[in-house]
Structures are given as structure tokens and as C-alpha cells.
């Protein structure tokens, strides 16, 4: 096997500067005021102390007042934005000529034709990654005025994107997969996020394409590429950990070899995490929704999910515990685990212990620190339940099945865990599917992912992708006595 070179190191972002005047700011939905002057939340979680003037500013920004010219105000906005506590919106900017669309394609001629018709005159580079009918791809590219780069053999989407990026001379490039259905003017709506010089990449929300089939209806609510309905600062350990390369807009100054060509799947996750490690910001803008079709058959749909699971092992080799299937507070995990196993008193004891430790951390910083600690612990633990349950099933289903054969308690807990995750997913989803069919598909989804995950781990003989990352206290809580002051 020929080992392909890893991509070169990414450049560092420019140093933090005050945020651009004229931006509007919205407080993250997950942020909460612990007392009149301390805002908690962000990505990763932190507690930021604000002066009375800072509190007033945040309130006015939340009411829609744009950021003014005062550098001190811009510096505060920068800290809030870089911490994921607020999200900026910039006025639309002209300059579509500064963007080139790069489309990797292999044997999807009809989809490519439809996509190029949607680009409305944007400069496009089509990278034919070894299509069987290369002449048809070439004819479609020529018909729409797109440049064509032909690869004689398939190297995969990461290789195709890198080669396409090497042909781009504009300031920004937009990767779009050939089967995507972007809305009119999608680049115009994404481009303003890159007015922030510290943002390397912005991505839209990817949602399932509307349809009447069962899989299509499920995927409209739960596409594996749909990473969120809310604006987010994307980074490992955050609420949104990656954005898919199905559609993303980025700076070409980052370099021409961005994707790790040694990865067969997961190259988009790897890119986002390397950018975050280099200090860049990555943003999700769900105001732009790009359609993406579901797989046409149940077998191909399950195969897709299994493939996604199989990529975790290789990512673990590169990024360590950033791939951890379960991460966060050990108190929350123990509380849910004990409760589902039939020991609710032990679960409550875990939450009480965690609350007491957190309260001590907040003492001297937060007014009414006991109440604040209790609110944080209850809110985070209740909200984490369904997601934690799904992660347990997706990551440890084979182990649960084995233990369930010998333990009635584990069998009951496993069933309860699976139902909690699937029903919680249905409850939060915007779907017209009834709970029965939705839950069945969700369980098949998670089981297929788990199969691929374990296959990847066995193939690479490394268990890093199965190792949880738990802490007695979130990193920001450990530093709560030194909370940011602005």
C-alpha cells in the first residue's frame, strides 16, 4: 500500500482584534446567566464575569443593537464570540468573483448537471474522480462553463478536493458535493461570516431532501450530515464538533493541501479539528440549508451509517480523546447509568456530590453559588440524558448485547437506554413520522454505526475510539475562581 503524505501544517490565524463594527450579536441558546454579572456557556463551557457596563452592552446587543465603533466594545464582543457565548451576523458583502466552487464528482452526471444549474454563474471547477463515462461529465461541465480537471483513477473525495483547490486562484473556495442541492444565493449568505479574519471556514446546515419515502422522511429530521439547527462555534469538545465537507466555504490562504489523503472517510472532521487546533474559528450557519438525498435503499442506508462509524478509529489515531464517544462530567454519566440500572438513590447521590464540588468552585465568584451550581448540574444532566443514551448504544452495543445475555438487570437497562435515546431523538426532531417507525429507524441507525465503529477498531487493533473521556469537573469549572472578567 502506498502511504500518502499528511497535509502540511496549517497557518496560524491573525491575532485577536476587536470585532467588526456593524455586526449584530445573538446570545447562544445554551448560555445562561448564573447571577446578574456572570454568563455561563460557550464552546467549551466557561463562566465569564462582566462589569455592569458589559452586562448593559450584552443586553443591548441581545435586543438587536449593532456593534459600535468603540474598540473596547469590539474587544468584549471578540471575547464573547471566540468563546462561543454569542454569535455574530455581518452585513452581506459583494464579491462573488472572490469565490470558486469546487465539485468532486464520480459517476453522478445527472446530479452534477442539476448542481451546476444552481450555481448561477459562479466560477466552478469540476474534478472528475475517475468516472466511468468521463465524456458525459466533460460535456456537462462544458455546457455550464465550468472548468474540468480529470483524474484517470479515483483517489477519493479528499484527493479530488485537494486537486481542485490547487486550481483555485480566488480568495475563497466553496466545496460542494455533486449530489447537494444548495439554495439560490447560498454563497452570498455564507460569505459574510468570513469578514471575521479569525474564521477559517463556514458551513451551512445540511438537511435531508424532502420526499415521501420512509427513509427520506426520517432523514429530513435526522440526516447524519445535519449537525445542528442553531448557529454554533464548531470545535472538538463543543456542542457542535464538526461540519461536513458536503458543503463548506473557506479561505484559500489556508493552503492547497487541506484534506488528509490518507483518510478514507472522516477527512472533513480531521480538517475541522486541525483548524481548531491551529487557533482558527469554524462556524455553522444554519440559516442556509443545503439539501442532501437519503440513500435509496435500506441496505445502502445502513451501509452508509456503518461506514461513518468505521472512520472513528483512524481519527482516534490522529486526534486522541477528541474522538471519545462519551465525554463530559463523570457525575452526570454515573447518575444516568445508576438510574437506568435501577439504583436511583446512587444516581441522585452522584448529582448531589457533583453539585457540592461545583458549588465550592463557584464560591467567592458567583452570587448564591449553591443555587447556581444546582441549576447548572440539573440543567446539564437532564439535557444530556437522551444524547448520552444514544452514544452508549452507538458505541457499546456489542458489549451491551453480551452482558444482557447473562444479566437481567443489564438487559433491562440496555432496553431502557436504547428507548431513551431514540424517543428523546424523536421528541426533539421536527418530523411527521410516528414514534414507532421513527424509533425503529433510529435504533437501526445507531446499530449500524456501532457495527462500523467496532469493525474499524478491530481492523486497526486500537481501542482509542471506544475510550470515554470523563472528568470530575468540566475544565472551565476547575478555573471558575479565575473566571473571565470583562
Any overview of this molecule?
The protein has 486 residues and is an alpha/beta fold. It folds into 3 domains: 27-88, no CATH class; 96-294, Spore Coat Polysaccharide Biosynthesis Protein SpsA, Chain A; 327-482, no CATH class. It is built from 16 helices and 16 strands. The chain has helices spanning 52-62, 71-82, 109-118, 134-143, 157-165, 186-190, 214-222, 267-277, 298-310, 312-319, 330-340, 344-362, 369-406, 408-428, 435-460, 475-478; strands at residues 24-27, 32-35, 38-41, 46-49, 86-89, 99-105, 123-129, 147-151, 172-176, 199-208, 232-233, 247-251, 281-292, 327-329, 469-471, 484-485. The strands form 4 sheets. The protein has an 8-stranded mixed β-sheet with strand order 8-7-6-9-12-10-13-11, sandwiched between helices. Strands 2-3-4-16 form a 4-stranded mixed β-sheet. Helix 3 (109-118) links the parallel strand 6 (99-105) and strand 7. Helix 9 packs across helix 15 and helix 11 crosses helix 13. The longest helix has 38 residues, at 369-406. The chain starts with 23 loop residues before the first strand and ends with a strand. The model is unreliable at 474-485 (pLDDT under 50).
